[in-house]
């Protein structure tokens, strides 16, 4: 059995706001429509802010999937905030606002929670349990790399550094890609099946999302050099009871990955080649494991540095910490900090901070 999760965020750091309608047209509608037509169940992790931007016909498509039992809606942070960088009051405000929007627009109260960027700390499960959540998605690689809790003493090294270098265009791109493929395949040996119980302030059930599995699926569906759907399925054939894909819907039909565009048809070819039953993530069996997860994210080094080390990010985090109300949600949006944010995304956050300070609406 395998599971599928699609993550939707129209505040995406690298997508211009003027492109939002195109994203909906090229990715959201065709991907959702294709999966529902095939009667393929999946989890839809979509921010409350994004839901408020979607046209009514797309909301109706989602509602139909929920009613048919094909779409499992997850909760998340309303404006895609990096939760471990917020005060506890603001974490809860993000969690509650997202649920309110989903109850209002979709008439559903989610029980599964997807932290933006899978950014996690051990107090988050307690807040989620307090707010009616039973299960949280976590980064699988971070789980198996949580044996040492102080990265100042023992830094976390990326599992496939050459593939990251190839993606960034560093050095000989093709050589790094070839070496990266070997590292990627080797990293699949860390993947284990099923859910876990997280040892946290309040224990909670967790579903691992595996970045290396996501990467194999995307390289295969995109037909990158030496990869195709059948080969990707061959690499993944020994894995069972996992989330086969658990990342951005925008990569399917709209946003290229290193100049390779994945279509919904090529994406589904990987599932067809694997030939496994697809079930909602909530139905994955429990592995019997009890694990501690360190404060982490699904960044290559599993840290929160991407969202805090840059001077602009540090300034945003400092200025937004005492905000409340509507402006705070925009200031807390992770995509103002992002992997490679557009100026307009960053300015939205700075502008909301200024307007809140001046008392504007």
- Principal-axis shape equals globular
Number of domains: 2
Radius of gyration, CA atoms, in whole angstroms? 19 Å
Under CATH at level 1, the class of the largest domain stands as Alpha Beta
Distance between the amino and carboxyl termini:
50 Å
Compute the average pLDDT: 94
Biggest β-sheet: strands ordered side by side in the sheet: 8-1-2-3-4-5-7-6-9
Q: How many distinct beta strands?
A: 9
Helicity range: 40-55%
Let me know the largest β-sheet: 9 strands, mixed
CATH architecture of the largest domain: Alpha-Beta Barrel
Fill in the CATH topology of the largest domain: 7-stranded beta/alpha barrel
Describe the protein.
With 361 residues, this protein is an alpha/beta fold. It folds into two domains: 2-158 and 188-304, Alpha-Beta Barrel (7-stranded beta/alpha barrel), CATH 3.20.110.20; 308-361, no CATH class. The chain has 14 helices and nine strands. It has a nine-stranded mixed sheet. Helix 4 (88-105) links the parallel strand 3 and strand 4 (112-113). Helix 7 packs antiparallel against helix 8, helix 9 packs antiparallel against helix 10 (229-236) and helix 10 packs across helix 11 (264-274). The longest helix is centred in the N-terminal third of the chain and has 18 residues, at 20-37. The radius of gyration is 19 Å and the shape is globular. The model has no long low-confidence stretch (mean pLDDT 94). This is Hydrolase.
């Amino acid at each position: 059995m395998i599971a599928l999760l699609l993550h939707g965020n129209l505040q995406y750091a690298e997508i211009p706001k003027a492109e939002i309608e195109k994203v909906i047209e090229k990715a959201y509608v065709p991907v959702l429509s294709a999966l529902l037509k095939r009667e393929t169940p999946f989890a839809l992790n979509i921010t409350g802010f994004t839901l408020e931007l979607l046209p009514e016909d797309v909301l109706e498509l989602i509602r139909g999937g929920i009613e048919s039992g094909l779409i499992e809606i997850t909760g998340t942070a309303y404006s895609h905030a990096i939760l471990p960088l917020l005060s506890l009051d603001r974490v809860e405000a993000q969690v509650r606002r997202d649920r309110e929007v989903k109850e209002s627009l979709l008439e559903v109260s989610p029980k599964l929670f997807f932290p933006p960027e899978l950014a996690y700390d051990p107090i988050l499960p307690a807040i989620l349990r307090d707010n009616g959540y039973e299960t949280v998605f976590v980064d699988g690689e971070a789980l198996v790399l949580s044996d040492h809790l102080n990265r100042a003493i023992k830094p976390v090294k990326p599992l496939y550094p050459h593939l990251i270098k190839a993606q960034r265009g560093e050095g000989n791109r093709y050589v790094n890609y070839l070496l990266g493929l070997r590292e990627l395949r080797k990293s699949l040996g860390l993947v284990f099946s099923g859910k876990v119980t997280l040892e946290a302030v309040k224990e909670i059930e967790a579903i691992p999302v595996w970045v290396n599995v996501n990467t194999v699926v995307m390289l295969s569906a995109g037909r990158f050099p030496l990869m195709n759907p059948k080969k990707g399925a061959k690499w993944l054939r020994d894995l069972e009871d996992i989330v086969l894909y658990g990342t951005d819907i925008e990569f399917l039909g709209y946003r290229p990955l290193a100049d390779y565009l994945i279509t919904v048809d090529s994406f589904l070819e990987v599932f067809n080649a694997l030939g496994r039953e697809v079930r909602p993530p909530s139905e994955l069996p429990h592995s019997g494991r009890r694990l501690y997860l360190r404060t982490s994210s699904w960044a290559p080094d599993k840290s929160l540095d991407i969202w805090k080390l840059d001077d602009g990010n540090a300034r945003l985090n400092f200025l937004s910490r005492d905000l409340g109300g509507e402006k705070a949600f925009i200031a807390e949006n992770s995509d103002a900090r992002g992997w490679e944010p557009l100026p307009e995304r960053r300015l939205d956050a700075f502008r909301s901070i200024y307007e809140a300070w001046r008392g504007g609406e």
